[in-house]
């Protein structure tokens, strides 16, 4: 049936002047360079006959559009400059391209012309967003001109609204709910007809915006942008905000543009929370799971929990042609070790004894709920390859009248989506059971780490932390062995055998040929050697207290840990605490190659490419041994994270970074990270394979993994935070009847030294209707895929090309929806699929992340670090990173147990009488407005008012009152949900530190370049119109 959703009008169609930061780069297709899901010629968008899905021109799936021939008509350039030209904007400074480079002439500038002010403002005033269907705009006589009329909220995702009377069903079956922007239901503001050509062109102001008389900064749509709450100038307006005040221009009185009128992530989360059932049962094929931001309990009834597997869409297109046409990447984000809440059942372990797990003889898929038992239960047909297999005698069971086995609910592998098998010796190296893993702590004792107090801090913490080593369920103590190394430009190994009265040190100064000088006594059980280990940890800080050695080695340290694990014939993890770039003469010596002159050029990618050679070989050797590397960095200057992080990022390890470390400032954050890193659930020496049904296959893998061939994902270790993103491609037609099935099998060693297989199964729908695909898309999973594929691409392509590909792909996905699934409507409308209506805000935020912003103000190490972090993230982590939570605290209900509802992530939401908590999973800020209530300040900080707070170094005390308890409870709850510890930074309004939170307010223009959400939406709409023309 035909539906209308979000409605707004054509600022989306006009060339916007000075549109935040994408001034000159996104229009044109990139040169013929491809990555990830993208890389082939685009198809023309010629209109299909009613009721028919037009097959596209053939090309590999999901690619960036290269130059296109005359499909778009002779006088229209694909995604390039408009055939007609506009006068260039008059500006005091030269036009700049996307993040500060001079604009290349080949690309269309977003700052071509001033907006036809009268027309834009009138059209924006007719926006009727958040209501489905078209309703007339109220006349000025009965509505307040400065305030925006909104209709009732839209239906929740997946529940389409009823068609308004008289609307005809869409020719393409039932399209998914959609959001439209741009309908012009009635002449706005008392005009007698649709807005005509522009009557009045005001002179240009800065950046090509029309200059308003009497105000320095005008809003981008001609009318003055409202300040917070749209009430004129705010005394404590956030730096960079638009000044308030009435717009003075010719023509009838104007309505102000309400930012609430565009799709909101926070509103979508709120609506989902209200409508969603608390329990999510996984017994339906292709059902879209709850959002990652909602609270739910999973009941496994045949498909893996969304905590383990999420997909970009839960309805795959039946043919490769459809997939190419829609450009929506088909991918799954798999977190095989995801933490399971206490109120959900942990995974069952199935033990078939010496015979091992039942598998298909042909494709080797493991027994799962999708296998069909036939011939009275004596044989089963594989749901992945259709091969018919004999059922082993010991596994035989009769079938009931429905053809199901009588023991269906007694066997986890027949009734659940996720479970484990105990592996036999056939699954072990050299057919021998593995030894329990080892943890080796390797501490850099060079001058910087001693002087900062870090070495003493680590040693003190390890005394208590080693009591909390992870252990098998039911075991009294941990089986993990521990060892200790200290180093600067030489290495010191310690014998901590329980029989010794004092630990013994052995020094290896020949770092070129690394070996472990002792076998017996290096890796020990902590409980048995506790006294000797504590003795050692007391001695280390004093032993090196007078050191002047500032040079360090790095590759030989990893080599030493690897050799120790080889000698002990076990897998394990190295915890390396390192401070500076390794400049000592040794293998893996690095030089400073940080060159800001490369930023914004073709060679910028070389800054993120690791220095090869010794590190490449180390990665290979570590993965083969099951040696995972966790790197804790404490740099005061450039350390080449792109190279130093390469081994951790390919061995399933984590990287932590504390710049300019000070014990009193960063100590608590570091200790929280270390403690969680040591205690978290983890599997070692892992190998993962994703099997699929016929018709499609896994083709690409992104994550903290190592690929030796095209199918096996190898991980020296895999923990509860690491996710692998897998892309699928068609190799045949899929059937709507049988759907698409996938199985992720992970073979690993437990912390107790057992070999296990962890199985996750998922079944999806298949459809020949694109509307079904769009209806079951998951925005959070899509953006995870795009982030990881873009972060891989930036190693091989210019940053500008990567950004263009992302924008082109966004426009293509939405244009295909508009063309094939939406009800016929004016081209000036922006129509978004309901399930993807907030996708543009995430995509715009991704384009402004440190890694993708070509800015010399950002350090290369920070950008490389960010790239490594995102590469290993799951859907929940990328969601909050790209749309941080902004929580108002001044209105919190201290008696309620729930978290206050988040508001839109924009500086317009900050008001000077408020207090807000802002977090993105990596950083946490508490923002205090200048006019914040003195009572609240007293309750939280124990000082009488805002003015009494110190300028810097404010901390949050624990006080005995309801407000203080509530705030600490909110911070604690948020911290528990996040993978990394977040240091709380308290920021006062108008302080210098306020700049640090600007980059997190993702709906606004980026601090280092990048458009606001509103401007980006306008730009994407113009791209879509280009494609549809």
TrEMBL record:
Residues 1-118, 133-262 are annotated as: Disordered. It comes from Danio rerio. Residues 151-178 have a biased composition (Pro residues). Keywords: Cytoplasmic vesicle, Protein transport, Transport. One of its GO terms (molecular function) is zinc ion binding. Residues 357-395 form the Zinc finger Sec23/Sec24-type domain. Its main location: cytoplasm. It holds the Pfam family Sec23_trunk. Belongs to the SEC23/SEC24 family. SEC24 subfamily. GO terms for biological process: cartilage morphogenesis; cerebellum development; embryonic viscerocranium morphogenesis; endoplasmic reticulum to Golgi vesicle-mediated transport; extracellular matrix constituent secretion; intracellular protein transport; thigmotaxis. Residues 779-878 form the Sec23/Sec24 helical domain. It comes from the Eukaryota. Residues 434-678 form the Sec23/Sec24 trunk domain. Residues 683-767 form the Sec23/Sec24 beta-sandwich domain. Residues 179-237, 245-254 have a biased composition (Low complexity). Residues 1-14, 71-80, 136-150 have a biased composition (Polar residues). Coiled coil: none annotated. This is Protein transport protein Sec24D. It is a peripheral membrane protein. InterPro entries: ADF-H/Gelsolin-like_dom_sf (IPR029006), Beta-sandwich_Sec23_24 (IPR012990), Gelsolin-like_dom (IPR007123), Gelsolin-like_dom_sf (IPR036180), Sec23/24_helical_dom (IPR006900), Sec23/24_helical_dom_sf (IPR036175), Sec23/24_trunk_dom (IPR006896), SEC23_SEC24_subfamily (IPR050550). GO terms for cellular component: COPII vesicle coat; cytosol; endoplasmic reticulum membrane. It is found in: Cytoplasm, Cytosol; Cytoplasmic vesicle, COPII-coated vesicle membrane; Endoplasmic reticulum membrane.
């Amino acid at each position: 049936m035909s539906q209308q959703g979000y409605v707004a009008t054509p600022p989306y169609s006009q060339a916007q002047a000075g549109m935040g930061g994408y001034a000159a780069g996104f229009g044109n297709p990139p040169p013929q360079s491809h990555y990830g899901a993208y890389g082939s010629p685009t198809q023309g968008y010629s209109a299909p006959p009613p009721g028919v899905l037009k097959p596209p021109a053939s090309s590999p799936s999901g690619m960036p559009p290269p130059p296109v021939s005359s499909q778009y008509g002779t006088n229209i350039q694909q995604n390039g400059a408009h055939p007609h030209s506009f006068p260039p904007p008059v500006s005091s400074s030269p036009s700049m391209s996307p993040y500060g480079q001079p604009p290349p002439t080949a690309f269309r500038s977003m700052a071509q012309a001033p907006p036809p002010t009268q027309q834009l403002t009138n059209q924006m005033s007719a926006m009727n967003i958040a209501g489905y269907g078209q309703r007339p705009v109220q006349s000025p006589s009965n509505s307040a001109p400065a305030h925006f009329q909104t209709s009732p909220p839209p239906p929740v995702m997946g529940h389409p609204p009823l068609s308004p009377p008289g609307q005809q069903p869409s020719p393409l079956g039932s399209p998914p709910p959609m959001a439209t922007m741009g309908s012009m239901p009635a002449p706005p503001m008392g005009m007698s007809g649709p807005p005509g050509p522009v009557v009045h062109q005001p002179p240009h102001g800065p950046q090509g915006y029309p200059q308003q008389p009497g105000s320095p900064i005008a809003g981008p749509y001609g009318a003055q942008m409202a300040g917070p709450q749209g009430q004129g100038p705010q005394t404590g307006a956030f730096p960079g905000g638009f000044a308030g005040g009435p717009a003075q221009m010719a023509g009838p009185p104007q309505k102000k543009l309400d930012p609430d009128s565009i799709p909101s992530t926070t509103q979508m989360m709120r609506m989902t929370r209200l409508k969603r059932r608390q329990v999510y049962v996984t017994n339906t094929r292709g059902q879209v799971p709850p959002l990652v931001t909602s609270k739910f309990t999973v009941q496994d009834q045949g498909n893996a929990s969304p905590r383990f597997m999420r997909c970009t869409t839960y309805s795959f297109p039946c043919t490769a042609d459809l997939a190419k046409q829609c450009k929506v990447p088909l991918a799954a984000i798999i977190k095989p070790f995801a933490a399971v809440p206490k109120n959900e059942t942990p995974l069952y372990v199935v033990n078939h004894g010496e015979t091992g797990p039942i598998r298909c003889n042909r494709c080797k898929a493991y027994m799962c709920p999708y296998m069909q038992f036939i011939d009275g239960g004596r044989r089963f047909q594989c749901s992945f390859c259709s091969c018919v297999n004999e059922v082993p005698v010991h596994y035989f069971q009769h079938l009931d009248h429905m053809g199901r086995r009588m023991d269906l609910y007694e066997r986890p592998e027949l009734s659940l989506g996720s479970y484990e098998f105990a592996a036999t010796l056939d699954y072990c190296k050299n057919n021998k059971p593995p030894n329990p893993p080892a943890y080796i702590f390797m501490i850099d004792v060079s001058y910087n780490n001693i002087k900062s107090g870090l070495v003493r801090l680590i040693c003190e913490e390890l005394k208590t932390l080693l009591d909390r080593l992870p252990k098998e369920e039911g075991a009294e103590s941990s089986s993990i062995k521990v060892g200790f190394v200290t180093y600067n430009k030489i290495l010191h190994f310690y014998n901590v055998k329980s029989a010794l009265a004092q630990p013994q040190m052995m020094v290896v100064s020949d770092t070129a040929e690394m070996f472990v000088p002792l076998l017996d006594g290096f890796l020990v059980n902590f409980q048995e050697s506790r006294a000797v280990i504590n003795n050692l940890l007391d001695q280390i800080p004093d032993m090196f207290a007078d050191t002047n050695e500032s040079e360090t080695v790095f590759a030989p340290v990893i080599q030493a840990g690897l050799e120790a694990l080889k000698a002990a014939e076990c897998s394990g993890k190295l915890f390396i605490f390192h401070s500076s770039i390794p400049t000592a003469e040794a293998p893996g010596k690095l030089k400073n190659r940080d060159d800001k002159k490369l930023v914004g050029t073709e060679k910028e990618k070389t800054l993120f490419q690791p220095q090869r050679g010794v590190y490449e070989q180390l990665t290979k050797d570590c993965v083969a041994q099951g040696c995972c590397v966790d790197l804790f960095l404490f740099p005061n200057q450039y350390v080449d994270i792109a190279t130093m992080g390469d081994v951790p990022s390919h061995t399933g390890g984590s990287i932590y970074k504390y710049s300019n470390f000070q014990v009193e400032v960063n100590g608590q954050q570091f200790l929280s990270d270390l403690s969680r890193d040591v205690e978290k659930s983890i599997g070692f020496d892992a190998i993962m394979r994703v099997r699929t049904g016929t018709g499609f296959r896994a083709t690409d893998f992104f994550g903290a993994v190592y690929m030796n061939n095209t199918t096996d994902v190898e991980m020296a270790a895999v923990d509860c935070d690491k996710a692998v993103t897998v892309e699928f491609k068609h190799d045949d037609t899929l059937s709507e009847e049988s759907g698409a099935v996938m199985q992720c099998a992970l073979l690993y060693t437990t912390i107790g030294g057992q070999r296990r297989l962890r199985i996750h199964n998922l079944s999806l729908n298949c459809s020949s209707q694109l509307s079904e695909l769009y209806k079951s898309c998951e925005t959070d999973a899509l953006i995870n895929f795009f982030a990881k594929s873009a972060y891989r691409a930036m190693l091989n392509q210019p940053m500008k090309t990567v950004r263009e590909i992302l924008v082109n792909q966004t426009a293509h996905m939405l244009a295909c929806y508009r063309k094939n699934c939406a009800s016929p409507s004016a081209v000036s409308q922006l129509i978004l699929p309901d399930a993807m209506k907030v996708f543009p805000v995430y995509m715009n935020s991704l384009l402004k992340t440190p890694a993708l912003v070509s800015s010399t103000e950002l350090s290369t190490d920070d950008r490389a670090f960010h790239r490594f972090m995102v590469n290993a993230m799951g859907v929940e982590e990328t969601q909050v990173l790209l749309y941080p939570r902004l929580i108002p605290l001044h209105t919190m209900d201290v008696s309620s147990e729930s978290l206050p509802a988040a508001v839109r992530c924009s500086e317009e939401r900050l008001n000077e009488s408020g207090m807000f908590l802002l977090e993105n999973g990596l950083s946490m800020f508490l923002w205090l407005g200048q006019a914040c209530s003195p009572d609240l300040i007293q309750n939280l900080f124990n000082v009488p008012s805002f003015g009494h707070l110190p300028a810097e170094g404010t901390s949050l005390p624990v006080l005995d009152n309801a407000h203080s308890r509530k705030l600490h409870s909110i911070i604690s709850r948020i911290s528990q949900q996040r993978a990394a510890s977040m240091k709380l930074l308290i920021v006062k309004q108008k302080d210098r530190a306020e700049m640090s939170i600007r980059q997190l307010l993702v709906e606004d223009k980026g601090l280092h370049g990048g458009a606001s959400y509103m401007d980006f939406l306008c730009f994407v709409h113009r791209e879509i119109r280009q494609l549809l023309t």
